[in-house]
Write a structure and sequence with these properties.
This protein is α+β, with helices and mostly antiparallel strands. The protein is built from six helices and six strands, in the order αααβββββαβαα. It has a single domain, classed as Jelly Rolls, CATH 2.60.120. The chain is globular and about 45 Å long. The structure holds adenosine-3',5'-cyclic-monophosphate (CMP). Adenosine-3',5'-cyclic-monophosphate binds near residues 52, 85 and 86.
Length: about 150
């Protein structure tokens, strides 16, 4: 199976509202070092508690987000086309807050920590927007775990 090419800056802006907050130069900076990754159902993309240096966008397919709830994996969310994940470890420099697993074969766009950090340094409103998503997601995650 051949790896599809990277989206253009315009396609990236259409894929997710987050990227429409950047201008073309910002999107192109991210795309310059991005890669595509294709994964099959049940593959684990990132694990709760581990260090994470990659930020992902779902181009197609579906992933599930789950977190440990006293030894049981609790489902937190399902994400499909246009959704991003893995931003929390990269932006906040913290361990992965949850485990993300492929539910339906996925085509992912992958950005590395360095290019994300470099772009966020120059686009503080995007950093702010990502931070707000992180707060919302953390609240939702904690709400779904028993005893919180
Ligand atoms: P990160 O902590 O880097 O790795 C796990 C990812 O799961 C996390 O970033 C978010 O992208 C995602 N995630 C965590 N909580 C939620 C949630 N409540 N809804 C959607 N995605 C989430």
């Amino acid at each position: 199976m051949s790896i599809p090419s990277l989206p253009t800056s315009d396609e990236l802006a259409k894929m997710s509202k987050l990227f429409s907050l950047l201008d073309e130069a910002g999107r192109n900076r991210l795309l310059a070092s991005a890669s595509r990754r294709q994964l099959a159902a049940s593959e684990v993309i990132c694990r709760e508690g581990e260090k994470g240096d990659e930020f992902f966008v779902v181009v197609s397919g579906k992933v599930s987000v789950s977190a440990d709830d006293f030894g049981t994996a609790k489902s937190i969310a399902h994400l499909g086309r246009g959704a991003f994940f893995g931003e929390m470890a990269v932006v906040a420099n913290q361990p992965r807050s949850a485990t993300v697993t492929v539910v339906e074969a996925c085509d992912l766009l992958v950005f590395g920590r360095e290019s994300v950090e470099s772009v966020l340094r120059d686009y503080p409103t995007v950093r702010q927007a990502l931070g707000a998503v992180g707060v919302r997601r953390t609240e939702e995650l904690l709400e779904k775990l028993s005893g919180s």
